[in-house]
Structures are given as C-alpha cells and as structure tokens.
Amino acid sequence: MRACLLLSCLLFLSLGGGCQGKLVHITEENWREVLTGQWMVEFFAPWCPACRALQPSWEEFSTWSEDLEINVAQVDVTTSPGLSGRFMVTALPTIFHVKDGIFRQYRGARDKDSFIVYIEEKKWQSVEPVSDWKAPDSLQMSAVSYFFKLSMILRNVHTTLTEEYQLPSWASYIAFAVATILLGGILGLLMVCCIDCIWPPRRDVGPPPAQQQKKREDKKDSDIEDEDDSQAEDTQEEDLGSQDEGTEAEDDYEGGSQDEGEESQAEGEGSQEEEEGEETESSNKSRRRKPRKAD
Q1: Which residues are identified as catalytic?
Q2: Which tens digits make up the pLDDT trace of 119-138?
Q3: Alpha helix (H) ranges present in 100-138?
Q4: Cis before residue 93, ω within 30 degrees of 0?
C-alpha cells in the first residue's frame, strides 16, 4: 500500500508536479533575479484567452529548462502591474528573452518546439536588444512602473465604488477629478515651499546707519550743488534777457531820436522857406508902393 502511494507520488511529481516546479513565478519582489543568467519570461493575465491557449505549451517548455540551461518564468500582470510598466508590455501574451541583463522580445511561433529551437540555435543573437533607455532596470522605466501601479490602484478604487457601494460611474469620475485638483494644489504648495527653502528670494540688506547718513549727506550736498547750479543758470539767463532788452531799448531810442532830429530839421527848413517867402512878398509890396508927390 505504501509502495503504491510512493509510486503515485513519484509519477505525479514527474508529470504534473515537475512541470509546476520548473516554472518560476516572477513578482515585483524578485524580478531582479532575471538580470543574471539566461531566462525566458512570459507576461500573461488569467482573463486573456491567448494566454490560456499558450499555457500548456509554456509549461511543457519549462520541463526543458535544465537541458537548455535556462530559466522559464511567468509574470501575472494583474498581481504585478508595476512589471508590465517596467517592461512596457502593451499586448498579451508577451515573451522576453533575457541574457545577463540584456532584454530581447521574442516574436516567433508560440509552441514548445519553436521555443526549444530558439534557445538551442541561439536565434536570439539575431534579434535587436531593447535600447538602454527602455531597459527595465533604468530610472525612467522605474518611474513608469510606479505610474502603472497607480493606475491599477485607481482602477481597483473605481471598481470598489461602482460595484460595492453602487455609485454611478459619473460620481466616481467626479470624485477622481476633485481628488486630482486637491492633490495638485497640495503638491504645488509643497513644491513652492521647497523651492523657497532651497533658493530663498533675494533681499537687499541695507548698510549700517552711519553709511546711510553719509549717503544722505552726500545726496544733500549734491542736491545743494545742483540747486546752486540751477540758480546760477537762471541768473545767467535773466542777465542775458536784460541785456537783450537793453540793446533793444537803445536801438529804439536811437531810432526815435534820429527820426525826431530829421523831423525837426524838416520843420526848420519849412519855417525858413516860409520866412523867405514872406520877405519876398513884403519887398515886392514895398516896391509896388511909390511915394506920392506933394501937391
């Protein structure tokens, strides 16, 4: 009886249990194991029909892992959404070949024999590796993985609100919008505070009071000098104006006196002419009058 049980256990391990034991399940906690050695990693989801169809072939391929000296693994994207973002998985199922941290995407046929030939004949060498900036262990892909995690969390919250609490979808969307606005305001305030702490605004530090007084005295002296200069300029302008007025008055006076002299001369000449005319008339009258002889 015991022998039958032992034989059945060995048979189970050799058939079913052995297959399950050769298949490594990768999660977000142990995913860095694929950076060393040679791996074939499948990304799948339980709800994906293509993944379900590939599952038997992938389990059979995992039984050849020791002969091919590779590790065969699976990643469930529903339980490890961060890895789907880290590896930029956009379709399911997706298979990657990893050799010492160098990633290449498998695009061949999806059956056990094709997988075996791909490893034995080293066809992966003819496949272009993933670029460095898209490597899963890079900084930017680590940030993308956090975004995928956040999206999965938001999806679970939405499912909880609509299914468990029986809220309409529009109410869930409004709640997400309000939360996004509040979170953005809080993050903006924190960023401003951090920037002010790191790069505080510049403030003009005033000099000591003695220097300020000196500057003020200098300013006052300069202001007095400016006022003196302005007054001197005003007086010069006034002097120039008075000189101009004096010259104009002299010109007017000289012109007027000359005109008066000319008029007086003209009047004198006229009076002389009148006197001469009167004298001639009187002489003519005297000549005309002759003394009468006495009778």
Answers
A1: 48, 51
A2: 999 999 999 998 878 888 77
A3: 112-120
A4: yes
